[in-house]
Amino acid sequence: MIRNAILAAGVIFSSASQLRLPGLPIGMGECCLALWIGLSVARLIAGYPMGASPALTRMSVFWVAFALTLSIGAIIGMLFDSQFNLGNMIHDAMAYLLIACVMILVFVEPDSDGRLRQAAWFAIIFGNIGLVVQIAIGWGVLPRGPLEPWYWDRFRGWSENPNQAALYCAALGPIALHLAMSAETGFGRFSGFALAILPVIFGRLTKSDAFLIATVIATLFLIGLRLRAWLVMSGSGVRYIAAVLFILAAPPTAITLLPYAVATAGETEGFAKSLAKDKGGDGTVATANLRLLLWKEALIRGGESASFGLGPGPHSERPTGPNPGNKPGPFEAHSTPLDLYTQGGVLALAALAWLIGSTLWLTLQARVDALSALICCLSVFSLSHFVLRHPIFWFALALCLAEGCTRRRTASAHYGR
């Protein structure tokens, strides 16, 4: 239990980038993860049992392939990239190494799904406590000290930028929903649903458009999955008839409601803009323009490496378009597929796509709908942000992989009867 709590604390506090040690790229989260690695290795040396599992095999295959693709990219970058930066490469390589150690050790010991589930409970509890503290600091209830909880009008808490905080909220909400939907007691279900509320509120305070889009898509995806589960339940012949009638009635109903939809289109557009950052105004447009410039540059840089990548670290040149900022290059593309394309090329992209796609298929087979929605949410979020260095992304993926492998046979037997 103590190790699971340490793992959860490491995952949650890794978002506290404003609380890192002065002059060092590590903080409380990284220290907790390093401590957890040390304790896990010590247990293995002391003779605690090890167990092979399909989840361990998948994660090991991915990290071996991922390390190989990044190594090839690093060699190409050192030989041919005029902007090669050793410091940036080491920074990303160390982050990947830390996460890889955690991901492998999580699955080395038996009962990885039970331990990850307990760690997930700790994570959402610690996460909600942390969110309460951050909100209290942001509204002056608690002294903020050296923290800067606001980035202009966007709330970021103890993170360096609002999008980093939004990523953690995007993961914590679905994780809490999964724990609630799979809990065996009423108290567990109530606690899970209650702990899913604050991450959504905090995520909106960040004014992250990616969080909003990812949450909406994941919610619709979850509703669709629950509808599927409702239809395939035993003795649901009436439900199938209702579904057929609904499908048959949908086209004429849509035609009937079309004039009303056209009349309210302007109001719907205004509502959508009101949810977006800067209400869809200049701030949203400037961000979109900057992202497009960076994405274009990432495609060019990746192509220059013959699609093998240039190794870990950012590789895009400083943009010359609107609002490029005053920071020196190189820049990240702020898109996981494109950043990975510049680092490890199409091979690294294929490895990540295989891991995420196979894990999603696993959760769909296992009927763990909230975890499938979690993968959907993080995948959509990752399209406009680079998430591979964040432990919360890998922790969520590990939870999906562990529970999916464990529940697949049970779910298949249950629904196959």
Task: Using brief descriptors, characterize the structure shown.
single chain, about 425 residues, mainly alpha, two-stranded antiparallel ribbon, 15 helices, 2 strands
Structure commentary:
The chain has 417 residues and is mainly alpha-helical. It has helices spanning 2-13, 28-45, 54-80, 86-108, 112-138, 162-181, 186-195, 197-205, 209-231, 237-263, 265-275, 282-304, 336-366, 369-382, 391-415, and strands spanning 150-151, 154-155. Strands 1-2 form a two-stranded antiparallel ribbon. A hairpin with a 2-residue loop joins β1 and β2. The radius of gyration is 23 Å and the shape is globular. The protein starts with a helix and ends with a helix. Mean pLDDT is 82; it is low at 260-276.
Low-pLDDT residue intervals, each spanning 5 or more residues: 260-276
Give me the number of helical elements: 15
Radius of gyration: 23 Å
**Average residue-wise pLDDT:** 82
> Separation of termini?
37 Å
Let me know the largest β-sheet.
2 strands, antiparallel
Strand percent estimate: under 5%
Strand order of the largest sheet: 1-2
| Alpha-beta content class | mainly alpha
Work out the helicity level.
Answer: over 70%
What would the principal axes of the Cα set say about the shape? globular
The arrangement of helices and strands along the chain is HHHHHEEHHHHHHHHHH
Overall number of strands = 2
Short account of what is shown:
This protein has helices at residues 2-13, 28-45, 54-80, 86-108, 112-138, 162-181, 186-195, 197-205, 209-231, 237-263, 265-275, 282-304, 336-366, 369-382, 391-415; strands at residues 150-151, 154-155.
